[in-house]
Write a structure and sequence with these properties.
Blueprint lengths: L9 E6 L4 H14 L6 E10 L9 E9 L2 E9 L2 H21 L1
Parallel strand pairs: 1-2
Antiparallel strand pairs: 2-3, 3-4
Helix pairs in contact: 1-2
């Protein structure tokens, strides 16, 4: 029997200067982080860039993932959105694997 695992659509909220390329990179990062996780029922990602040069980390990447009735949240702030997305990938992978393990 060939079983295909359906992956839920990732819903995005963006604010500030977030390009389509950065949004696509965030989608790949979240899918990579959740690659081994089962039971994912919904995923919402928020990408935000504040146009204030005085802020040390104006870029924010956040993901909220539901595993049935359990919810995992990870976020990261950085000087650039690509850096925030990279950190989000790592943090989300750790939280998802921790939830799956216990």
């Amino acid at each position: 029997m060939n079983v295909t695992r359906e992956r839920p659509e990732i819903r995005f909220l963006t604010s500030g200067d977030v390009s389509a390329h950065e949004r696509a990179a965030a989608e790949r990062a979240v899918r990579d982080a959740l690659a081994g996780a089962g039971g994912v029922t919904s995923v919402q990602v928020t990408l935000s860039v504040v146009a204030d040069r005085s802020l040390p980390r104006p870029a924010l990447a956040q993901a909220v993932v539901e595993f049935g009735r359990r919810r995992v949240r990870a976020q990261a702030a950085a000087p650039r959105i690509d850096e925030a997305v990279d950190m989000l990938r790592e943090r989300l992978a750790i939280r998802a694997s921790s939830l799956q393990a216990g």
